[in-house]
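PROTOCOL LOG
Step 1. Enter all chains and additional molecules of the complex.
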Amino acid sequence: MTAEITATASVPDIRPKTSKDDRTMIGFMLVIGLYLIVALALPLYAMLSKSFSTYSFELGNFEFAVDKGEGWSEPVTALALNQDLQVVKPEELATSSDGRLAATVFFSDFSFRSPTKYRLRQIRLESSFLVGSKRIADTEWHEFESNQFRRIVLRPSSATGLENFRTYFSTPALFRSIENSLFIAFLSTMITVSLAFGFAYALNRSKMRFKGVFRLIAMAPILVPSLLPGIALVYLFGNQGMIKGLLFGESIYGPIGIVIGSVFFTFPHALIIITTALAISDSRLYEAAISLRASRWRTFWTVTIPGARYGLISAAFVVFNLVITDFGLPKVIGGQYNMLAVDIYKQVIGQQNFEMGAVVSVVLLIPALFAFSIDRYVQKRQVAVLSSRSVPFEAKPHKRFDLICLSYCLLVGIFIVGIIGVCQYAALIKFWPYQLSLSLVNYNFDVMDGGGWASYTNSIQLGIYTAIAGTIIVFSGAYVVEKTNGFFATRSAFQFLAMMPMAIPGLVLGLAYIFFFNDPANPLNGLYATMGILVVCTVTHFYTVSHLTAVTALKQMDREFEAVASSLKQPFYRLVSRVTVPVCMPAILDISIYLFVNAMTTVSAVIFLYAPDTALAAIAVLNMDDAGDVAPAAAMGMMIFYTNVTARLIHLFVSRKLLQKTQAWRLR
Amino acid sequence: MSEQQAVNNENAKHYLRIDRLTKMFGDFTALDKVSLDVIEGEFIFFLGPSGCGKTTFLRAIAGLDIQTSGTVHQAGKDISALPPSERDFGIVFQSYALFPNLTCERNIAFGLENQKFSKADIENRVSELLEMVGLPDQGKKYPAQLSGGQQQRIALARALATSPGLLLLDEPLSALDAKVRVHLRHEIKELQQRLSVTTVMVTHDQEEALAMADRIVVMNQGVIEQIGTPTEIYREPSSLFVADFIGAMNQFKGKAGSKNTATVGDVTFASQEHDLQQDTPAVIAIRPEDIVPHSDGAGSQGATELGPTENTFDALVEEMEFLGSFWRVSLSNASLGDASMVIDMSINAVRQMDVAIGNSIKVEFPSNRLWVFPPGADTG
Amino acid sequence: MIRRVFKKSALITCIAAISMFAFANPAFAVDLTVYTAVEAEDLKRYAETFNKEHPDINIKWVRDSTGIVTAKLLAEKNNPQADVIWGIAATSLLIMKAEGMFVPYKPKGIEMLDPKFYDSDATPSWVGMDAWVAAVCFNTVEAAKYNLPSPKTWWDLTKPVYKGHVIMPNPNSSGTGFLDVSSWLQMFGETGGWAYMDALHENIARYTHSGSKPCKLSASGEIPIGVSFAFRGARSKDAGAPIDIIIPREGIGWDLEASAIIAGTDKLEAAKTLMDWSISKTAMEMYNTAYAVVAYKGIAKPVRHFPPETLSRLIDNDFDFAANNRKRILAEWQKRYDSKSDPK
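Step 2. Run joint prediction.
Step 3. Record the structure below.
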């Protein structure tokens, strides 16, 4: 019988039938993918095209005629005039959208007192010229007295090309920032990752006391805007600083301040990633090491470091990008030390040169690609560390080691608490350093820049929306990347998009959003100037760390869970709700609180996007500091801090009960 | 092979029919037109070295990695293109894949919930299964609180909970230590017989396969080398790969003779029938336990020359290894070249024949136990 | 069961709370979105007074520094969100006018204003409210610590004694900074202006992003001398800061705070009402509490802490010069001082 079948039937190719689960997953992938495209790829594309959008004076488009009392001369283009005079050099033709070129330069004999009359017209309608500040954009001839003619300036036409980049790299003031940014980011990364690893190690591997307290303290910097340490550093080390002697005459305004502040605000970010990496290590490896009589030192280098390797590398690039893309801190404390992110601010805010801002942004994207390739490389090497069989590590007491850990954590703790304490102190002082009496005058936000107390409630709203929407989007996205089979190219693209936001400076993202969402032709235009766009922007801006946290947690799950569930005829969402989500609950809670506090503290991503009724607290901090209201800025910063502390406490209280239920299995 | 099977199982019901299954990963052919029929209630093993395609085969049957071409019929139904959730099987992995946050009870009940069963039915079924796998009072514990062996039993109970028609076991014992492994082997076998559920198990451990299987599918490089009962596989290997992979085998390089002879060096042996062309290179193989020692030649000094068509000859004892219930003795004979051979001798035989290193004994290669194979490209 | 009910009600409460946040808005007939750079502490007062006369128009302020508001407006050029811009530096307005972003409108009562305070077109595109003037804030306490004499002129600031004790705003990000630079170039001429800035650069501790910050830093003693604007200095002095406001003898730069209607607004009538009100005598008197110079002829009263010589030292400001040379000046400034500004 078998022989018959074998002999006669041809071998059909199989088109696997998709299950309901598969279809749901594809649907999910589409939705989340679409989100990332709309919230990230398209705005960035708008930004990119902006960087290639150039402005230059099309001299051939302007035609002059002169009447020196002998009737009108033959019309002649500015191009022809310039060929004779050579007054405008070719490199001066490239300009920005606000470029202006005086018409008089083409007439070497020009005098506004002469009776000469001038005529001017444009040949094609692709640029304009100004008479004083009046814009003329037609192709008619216009006649001017010489006294009027001196007020005429030519405006550039727009085109597409690389001129902006050429200009950028021929301006030393601008590209020097690349070096500065790389230097600061590298230095801060080395310091932060080392400090954070030590801290995470002490928390995970020692039996020292007060772990809970230290954990809380270490998370504190994440609860304040990145520019707050800058304010504290001014009070500590500024010219009126409390302990400025410690700097031995060095100025805090500059690299020193940026690095100290950067270490402060990136510390928790690194700590979260490294702690996760250390927490998932398998205690059986340590038991093996002990049984092999390996020394603590050897165990550290052969078990701990390799186990945490992925976390360390990941933490390093996260910190590097945070520092290189942050703009709040260098703006407050950077003094004359130029950084790329601040350059964008200066280009856009100071000079309204969006194109150059876009160019600097493109330069800033290079670390993103770098970070991405590192991540891919590491991922290929990483093996799933935790299977369902591995046993979580439980530290054993060791007196001397515990004491060292305690003192180390204490030092780091003092640094963090000190910075925040100084801000609170400054906020309560009436007028530093002349009137040291305590007062709440600095909390009277409604009479200061930034949006007053309304901005504070707006921020809380933004935090709640971002935490809820963001956690769902991020976790679903990570699940799709980690747990679907096939679609390799799609998943890679997805992973790439998920990694991108880390390297996108908030300022750039915000600007990109303006260009993309504020285009009347965009069907999503209605989102502009609403709370919605702030939520989308914030979720997207903080996507990467959340995504990495989710992916790291999902990697711990046995790859066969989905296979088991489908063999048991259980839909994947049941597996997700019964197993995946409960097992990943610590990570999910981390993500939601991470998103909430970042929504509370973010400045750069939303500075261009807030509308009259959606001003935000962190922006108020920036604006108040910008206006020199440093103490109120500190006060608002502390309001953000206390809100985040409260949120964390609520979060802790709620999650403790939840965790007791979902994480009992972790105890052996 | 399918002919042979068709003959053997003429009247048996084919529960699982697999026809010319091919699985490609890019340009790599992981499975190459593999066909197999499994009888209902049969315990069948996929055996082979790592990378031979056995796990790919299993995952194709499960629908986890659906084949590129070829069909799978289960209980008369074409399931070739169905996703796993629309097939009828239970599966156990080497990693157990137990849900770490659920107690053993809830792990087992996972497939029962959300179905038509009542709560009480589920509880009854779970305790029945816990009883069945011998862990009646461990239900409230979490997987991490159990030993590896216990966890694998829970995984087994979970896979069986929904009474699937087909049980798939992917190296379920490989992660366990030797003693537990042997113990669990028996339990699984017993359980399988009791439930008479059609079972496919993947392993690279031949001992496991020989001990537990009704039939073994020996695989190598994406193709099936042989299908047969453990005895068939062991006693009548159809290729040098099978002969070499399963059990110990003495091998001599030589040439094929006429249809039931073969030559090593210039000695010709009577052998099993073979279909090799005369004078083509061949490997002549015999299992250690098939070599028959003869007491009449014992005690003489040195090995005698072999006669031209004799299967009996003297050999020099080179080494002796005591393996508890028997001795494994290494012998040599100049006519067979450098290759030494091993022979398993009972303790009595060794004592009676006064076998000792440096002595010579007379041994016989029974012609019906002497195999002639074409030399494989890869002898494993 | 009970727990489940509780959970549900908690959820509903949450949603209700969130939606209350989202939709709590007082009802007004017209919402007018107004972008402004006017000091935050004054906005409420202005809006209250305005609403006394026009209770049917609710002003939604978007307040930010001049640079940011300008950037925002230019970025939104194709899809403006603002109906009116109000109290923005005239220099910025000229840039926007050149982009054709305004609806020209001649507010009622414009004849009462000094013509140099509004657009010279027949139907003006923008109308000035008041002027803000450059000034130097000088912290007497800190100066005493370093033995610094009080500077009398701009050129005084270049003396070696002030090295590292002067802060000024970066013209690339601050309107005040640009105002200073453009006034120096107008007063000292192109060559003299740059020579002055070269010399001044030697004494500058750092350049700030905002124009009011130097004065506030001076007020808090962070730096003895801050180049800023008079209004800010007066405010800080009011708050008790030990500072003097110095109007250098050569003259001081100034800029208008002006208003305009954004082209494309669908609330033109309300916008015109606000424009009318913004040049009314009532409004002007309110400006006068903070600004010594207002557009309305003959009502300006001296403002507390403003040096009396302020008015007489205003330079003859050429706005077109400032607007049309802005890019060139900023680029030159950046080339000269930004690239040298790395720590030595």
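Step 4. Note key features.
The mean pLDDT of chain C is 84.
The first strand of chain C starts at residue 30 and ends at 36.
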